[in-house]
Write a structure and sequence with these properties.
Blueprint (H helix, E strand, L loop, with lengths): L14 H9 L5 H5 L5 E4 L13 E8 L4 E4 L5 E9 L2 E8 L13 E9 L4 E9 L8 E4 L8 H15 L9 H7 L4 H9 L4 H33 L9 H10 L6 H15 L5 E6 L5 H14 L3 E5 L3 H15 L6 E4 L5 H13 L4 E4 L13 E7 L2 H13 L5 E6 L5 H7 L4 E5 L10 E5 L4 H13 L3 E5 L7 H18 L6 E4 L5 H12 L5 E4 L12 E6 L7 H8 L10 E5 L5 H12 L3 H12 L1 H4 L19 H16 L1 H5 L4 H9 L10
The structure holds adenosine-5'-diphosphate (ADP) and magnesium ion.
């Protein structure tokens, strides 16, 4: 027998039971034993003398009185009996379980668990068993059974499965690794996670399963990376170093240390014949665009074409303006393509693209349409939207093209998440802001303190600056969202009547109207822009120095940071006011943290810590795999270790030859990783 046999091969599990188990996704013995409890109830006997009020206690005692029942109206009852536990006389009270009356008689021994009312020397019983404690485990596993069967039944099956299948479980972790980290073997770990003798056992077992899970995951990620590097020979882009240097020195500023480092990393990869599949993370304002310009230019000096995609037309246009300004003096032909490009211009553009007359194409999603055909694409960069980058990579590959691909994101992602969600990619980090940037002064105020805020806003406007007012995001309904923005717009229009222009922007406006409004704001024709979160990504209006965010608790730290990054882009001091009355400690901590730091990476770590991995990317594009035991917040050390080990294993010849690693290799093969596919 092996643990891969069906559960029915266990004596004691028949067809009917198997059917029930199947509802829980359990078919084999392996499935069964790998269904872990989500908690253990503590039934250790308690010494009542030591135990404080309101603690959960378990005592074994002799029934000392006839049970008495009190009916308290509809379906409610209170049954009470006196118990002698050791030499402690206590009352045991059972609510709504009057039927137990016939099972309790003086002289018998029972074990009860419940909340201890110290003052009244009374136990409010939640769990009752006839007989002494010997029958009862110290720690009882509790499983998620969705009402399919009783815990007790499931525990019996589990006990049976562990007993019958001992020694039959696949050990995926070789001895060397188990020794190195003192991890329990599979049989021992299974026993400890289901039926621990103490809480240390649970910890021990968990440690093993977490490592195992993360190692397998990282082997898969690194396996994909390795497979892609080997299979997809990119082109070695032999750029002209002199020209690139020349371009860099022509820029109106000197690159920061981080920009130089990242440019070097990227150029080295361009030149190698492995294909670039890289994420560039940089905090808001760290200067990713110019880095993109340098590497695109490098590719162009080698005779390739470049592409740069942004999620919105405004952003794409902004990029087109900057890059044309920097690159055209160096003889680069830059073109812009978006949904709004007129058919005639579009036709001409597409022709020039095929013939290679265009060196650099900048635009929106329009760039991944099937009829957009490059002559010789060497490098494709996407800004602020990795998911659509993945899609576009596929499209390019389907066209038989294999350019280097770089994804840029201004959402600093904590390292644990980065190596999980983007585990198969390389990561570069811009962790330095250009010199001379002023920190954005951030204040958190109660929602009823609007009037001083408006005064402050007015003083900025008076100095010729502009302001953003961000309205609450109500996820369930963008109708309400819009309503909020409309209301606030109305109020501010009245307040600033005849003095300042107030614009309104929200997601329900047609794209071209949104663009017009943004342009007007950029040109200074609008003083105050009331908006929902649509301004979040990448918009650059350096003259805006003031931001007011209503109902700021509704946002995560990462998003608040993104929003705040719309100001502080010029030479002047900028301000961000958070209006919020957080109801929870977590909410207060978030607001407080915002006022204390401008560091996006720090905020991202904090966000992850406060809200957990699930919330980090928002619902839509998490990209995070689901782990069974591992938790990305708490197990980050194990994740790092597993990643390092995976890397070492894949590079070592033992891994590919030794039988010890057989099971790990099987998993790796089954996952498709060795074909370079990411399936999850
Ligand atoms: P982000 O990384 O948020 O996309 P941008 O690329 O938009 O940042 O850069 C923000 C601003 O900083 C731009 O106006 C850009 O020209 C400027 N900038 C970029 N690098 C430097 C530098 N090394 N020194 C001074 N200013 C810089
Ligand atoms: Mg940017």
């Amino acid at each position: 027998m092996t643990s891969l046999n069906a559960v029915t091969s266990l004596k004691g599990i028949g067809k009917a039971a198997a059917k029930q188990l199947e509802q829980l996704g359990i078919v084999t013995i392996h499935d069964l034993v790998m269904t872990f409890p989500y908690r253990h109830d503590d039934f250790r006997l308690t010494d009542l003398i030591e135990t404080p009020h309101n603690e959960r206690v378990t005592v074994e005692g002799r029934v000392e009185s006839e049970p008495s029942v009190l009916f308290l109206g509809r379906n409610k009852s209170r049954l009470q009996v006196r118990l002698l536990a050791g030499n402690h006389l206590v009352k045991a009270v059972f609510f709504n379980q009057h039927y137990l009356k016939d099972r309790l008689s003086p002289g018998m021994t029972v074990t009860v668990t419940g909340k201890w009312d110290r003052g009244r020397q009374l136990i409010n019983v939640s769990n009752f068993k006839e007989g002494p404690k010997v029958e009862q485990l110290d720690f009882e596993p509790v499983y998620s059974l969705k009402g399919v069967m009783h815990q007790k039944t499931f525990r019996r099956y589990m006990r049976l499965a562990l007993d019958e299948s001992a020694g039959q479980h696949e050990e995926s972790l070789p001895q060397v690794l188990r020794d190195a980290y003192r991890l329990a073997g599979i049989d021992r770990a299974l026993e400890m996670i289901h039926f621990p003798s103490n809480l240390q056992d649970v910890k021990q077992a968990r440690r093993r399963f977490v490592y195992e899970e993360l190692l397998l995951f990282q082997l898969k990620m690194m396996g994909i990376k390795k497979a892609r590097k080997e299979a997809e020979h990119g082109v070695a882009i032999q750029y002209n170093l002199e020209l690139v240097k020349n371009f860099i020195s022509s820029l109106p500023f000197e690159l920061t240390g981080a920009q130089k480092r990242v440019v070097n990393e990227l150029c080295a990869e361009l030149k190698s014949n492995t294909r670039m599949n890289r994420l560039l993370q940089g905090d808001v304002g760290s200067g990713k665009t110019v880095v993109a310009a340098v590497v695109l230019y490098a590719a162009i000096t080698a005779g390739y074409q470049g592409a740069l995609m942004a999620p919105t037309e405004i952003l794409a246009e902004q990029h087109a303006v900057s890059l044309a300004e920097w690159l055209e003096p160096h003889g680069v032909t830059v073109a812009f393509l978006a949904g709004s490009t007129k058919p005639k211009a579009r036709k001409q553009l597409l022709e020039n693209l095929v013939t290679g007359e265009i060196d650099l194409l900048i635009g929106t999603h329009a760039l991944i349409q099937p009829n957009v055909i490059f002559k010789n694409p060497g490098l494709v960069i996407t800004d602020e939207q990795h998911r659509f980058g993945v899609e576009q990579r596929r499209v390019l590959r389907d066209k038989g093209l294999n350019p280097d691909v770089l994804f840029m994101t201004a959402t600093p992602i904590p390292r644990t998440l980065a190596i999980t969600a983007f585990g198969e990619m390389d990561v570069s980090v811009l962790d330095e802001l250009p010199a001379g940037r002023k920190l954005i002064e951030t204040h958190w105020l109660k929602e009823d303190s609007l009037s001083p805020v408006l005064k402050k806003m007015e003083s900025e406007l008076l100095a010729g600056r502009q302001a953003y007012v961000i309205c609450p995001l109500i996820e369930e309904s963008d109708k309400l969202d819009v309503q909020n923005a409309v209301d606030v717009h109305g109020q501010l229009s009245t307040y600033f009547e005849g003095r300042y222009t107030v614009g309104l922007m929200h997601g329900r406006l047609p794209a071209d109207v949104k663009d017009d409004i943004m342009r007007a704001f950029g040109a200074g024709e609008i003083d105050i822009l009331v908006s929902t979160t649509v301004v979040e990504v990448g918009v650059n209006v350096p003259n805006a120095t003031f931001m007011l965010i209503y109902d700021a608790t509704r946002f995560g730290l990462a998003q608040l940071h993104q929003l705040r990054g719309r100001v502080g882009r010029g030479a002047e001091q900028s301000y961000c006011i958070l209006l919020a009355d957080p109801k929870t400690e977590e909410g207060k901590e978030r607001m407080q943290t915002m006022t204390e730091t401008n560091d996006g990476f720090l905020l991202a770590e904090k966000d992850l810590e406060l809200r957990g991995a699930g919330d980090f990317f928002g619902k839509k594009q998490s990209g995070l795999p689901e782990f069974k035991v591992a938790d990305l917040v708490h197990d980050y050390r194990a994740l790092e270790t597993a990643r390092k080990d995976a890397e070492i294993l894949l590079e070592s010849s033992n891994f590919w030859t030794d039988d010890e690693y057989r099971i790990l290799k099987q998993h790796l093969e089954k996952s498709g990783a060795l074909n370079g596919e990411r399936i999850d």
